[in-house]
Prior knowledge:
single chain; alpha+beta; Beta-lactamase; 5-stranded antiparallel β-sheet; two-stranded antiparallel sheet; 12 helices; 9 strands; globular; disordered N terminus
Amino acid sequence: MRVRGWLLVVLCVVATPAQxxxxxxxxxxxxxALTAHPGSGRLGVAVRDLEDGSTVLIDAKRPFPMQSVYKLxxxxxxxxxxxxxxxxxSKTVHLTQAQRAPGRSPLAKQIGPEGLDRTIEQLLxxxxxxxxxxxCDVLLDEVGGPAAVQAxxxxxxxxxxxxxxxxxxxxxxxxxxxxxxxxxxEDRVREAAIEALPPQRRQIAIDxxxxxxxxxTTPQGMMDMLARLAAGELLSADSTTxxxxxxxxxxxGLNKIKAGLPQDWALAHKSxxxxxxxxxxxxxNDVGIATAPDGRRIVIVALLSASRLNSEARDKMLADVAxxxxxxxx
Length: 330
C-alpha cells in the first residue's frame, strides 16, 4: 500500500503542468494591438520560452517572405556540411565581379577586375554579421544550391522554411526586372531599369512576390528552427557555438527586436528587409534567441509583410513585439 501511495504522489507531480512562461492573454492582446494602425500590414509572431516550452503564436502558419532572414537556413546547411567533413571552413574561394550581388554587400565593392580570394569562414562571417548578399550567393553555390539547402532542412525535419533562389534573382524578381543579368549589379543601371518599367508591371511583380511561396517561412517553422538550434539539435557543438556567436555580433537590424529588449539581455538574431516600392514594404523581419542575464532564453520571431508604415515605424513594431514579450514574462 505504501508503494502504491508513493507511486501516486510521483504520478501527480509528473502530471502537474509547469507554470506558463508568459501571461498569454496579455501577450496576445498586446501583439494584436500592434496591427491596429491602418496600413500596418500583416504581422506574424512566434514566441517560445525555451525554459518550459510555453509558446504564443500569432498568424503563425502563414508563409512570410524572408528576405535576408533566409541566410540563417543557408548557414545551417553550410555548417551541416562542415560537420560532415564535406567542406572545410579554411577552403579558399576565388570571387569574380560576375558574382557580385546587389543590395547590401561590402564584399562586392572589394572585388576588382582580377577577382578576390576569401575563405568559406570569412564568407560565412560576412553573410551572418554584415548580411552580405554576395557572400550569401557564393555560399549558396558552395552548398550545392537551393535544392541542397532544402534537402538539409527536410532531413532535419525542419518544415515551413523554404530557400529557392539566390539573392540576385530574388531581388530582381520582386522589383520586376526578370532574369538576373550581371549588368544589374551597378546601381545606376539597376535603378534606370526599374525606373523604365511601367508602374503596372512593377505592381504586378510586387503582388506576385507577396503571393509567392518561394523563399518564405512560417513564424512557427522559424521558431522551431531557432529552438532546435539553441538546443544543439541541428549542428555540432562547435558549429552551434560559431553560428550563435555570429548572430550575436551581427551589425544589422539593431533597431528591431534588439531595441525592444532590456539592455542587459543578449540577442542572437538574423534580420531581413526588402525595402519599399510605391509606399509598400513587402518584408520587414527579425528573428532570434534572446537571453536574459540569468540565462533564460526566449525565441522571438517577428515577421511583417505588406506594410505601408515608414521604415522607422516598421522597426518599432518589431521592437514592440520584443517589448510585449518581455512584459508578459512571469
